[in-house]
């Protein structure tokens, strides 16, 4: 089927470039099931061209700018993205089916990330080391790694791209972005806007394609670091391949995050938090609150409210203002939603609501799935152990703190957790004991440019956001300088 929508080349060294082999692939609008947009299906030679452009810029035009100037250009890029947020959001909603309002908000928010890290660009400092030998000056330099490969998923393309690119560029590196083949358009637009903002050509490059392009980026000997956001299985494979050549990785992987509701919780707020945590983005977010543990004294009341609200969620086209939940991004994700719910029921779970594909009038070919709640499960039920990445909530009652702590920590993931209670002594006690990189108390899905984010256990390695994110993109050099003219005997140890 011919593709509607634009045709994109790779963005390399400031130019739109066709693939060396001439191969292309077609995107899909998940709301209609129709083809949308044509993109380069990149191979190793295409990736190499992008890496060479990035390497040249890293030691040339980008390195020749002062840190202050680089920071100001990052801020200008953020302003450009915010000015074009509507265009970027429509591209993303058309390709991944998430709500236009969410994609627009993310495109506007990344300005804050680029302003923040732009401001940190000239705050990167070394240290003078006090040595016993007073004649020796020893100091450290904190220098960029070089070319950074950024591999981005389809669920929040602009947001996740900037979360990695902002600290990488602030540290003086250059980047090659490999977006998901599901959402390739916005990354190319971001690269174009970078150059409109004054960032030199070659600093931000984009190669599109499937697994072959990603593999070529991971394996490229001139790529010093890989930033990957996606499944834990893919993250393990990337870390192994990068580690084979001693390249470092920052990995933001899957999650199976719990929302814990104690008996004294603000119930209305907790219900809203659980709903937004799993259904607001159709469950297609790594921090989805896909497990709810509710104290047995209020369990029935909370379950009833959740079911009532879930049944009332309006499914529809993500560009429509009245839509509250869009489709799954791909047929593969839609099928995974179905199979995971079937497995949960086979293992003893019971449907409280949903559990089927949804048919939306006028969008009959769209990839829609009903908001789904499953209860009555044992702790080892696959729905309570494995990431679905869809609008599927597992809910379970608990009796006491020790029990719910064991349940919450009882998965291989550790990305985030939510706590709902008016007892702040308990909340802070629990926050220390939960095995999660982020803990929210009486709120959920809150992120900020200056607060570190990342996972424990199988949910990843390293941190993005916050000042410590810069450390992921710098290497330290120690410089020794003898200031004395005294001639040293080469056979006498210097101490």
Descriptive overview:
With 495 residues, this protein is of the alpha/beta class. The protein has 13 helices and 23 strands. The protein has two domains: 270 residues, Aldehyde Dehydrogenase, Chain A, domain 1 (3-Layer(aba) Sandwich); 184 residues, 3-Layer(aba) Sandwich (Aldehyde Dehydrogenase, Chain A, domain 2), CATH 3.40.309.10. The strands form six sheets. The protein has a seven-stranded mixed β-sheet, sandwiched between helices. Strands 10-9-8-11-12-22 form a six-stranded mixed β-sheet, sandwiched between helices. A three-stranded mixed β-sheet has the order 1-5-4, covered by helices on one side. Strand 13, helix 9 and strand 14 form a beta-alpha-beta unit. Helix 2 packs antiparallel against helix 4 and helix 2 crosses helix 6. The longest helix is centred in the N-terminal third of the chain and has 21 residues. InterPro entries: Ald_DH/histidinol_DH, Ald_DH_C, Ald_DH_CS_CYS, Ald_DH_CS_GLU, Ald_DH_N, Aldehyde_DH_dom. Belongs to the aldehyde dehydrogenase family. Homodimer. It holds the Pfam family Aldedh.
Characteristics:
Aldehyde Dehydrogenase, Chain A, domain 1, 23 strands, 22% strand, six-stranded mixed β-sheet, 2 domains, Aldehyde Dehydrogenase, Chain A, domain 2, alpha/beta, seven-stranded mixed β-sheet, globular, 495 residues
What's the helix and strand layout?
Blueprint: E1 4-7, E2 10-12, E3 15-17, E4 24-29, E5 34-40, H1 44-59, H2 67-83, H3 85-96, H4 100-120, E6 128-129, E7 136-144, E8 147-151, H5 157-170, E9 174-178, H6 185-196, E10 204-206, H7 211-219, E11 223-229, H8 232-244, E12 248-252, E13 258-261, H9 267-278, E14 291-295, H10 299-311, H11 331-346, E15 350-353, E16 372-375, E17 392-398, H12 401-408, E18 413-414, E19 416-420, H13 424-433, E20 438-441, E21 456-457, E22 460-461, E23 474-482
Parallel strand pairs: 1-5, 8-9, 8-11, 9-10, 11-12, 13-14, 13-19, 14-17, 16-17, 19-20
Antiparallel strand pairs: 2-3, 4-5, 6-7, 7-23, 12-22, 15-16, 18-21
Organism: Ramlibacter agri
Subunit structure: Homodimer.
Catalytic activity: 4-(hydroxymethyl)benzenesulfonate + NAD(+) = 4-formylbenzenesulfonate + NADH + H(+)
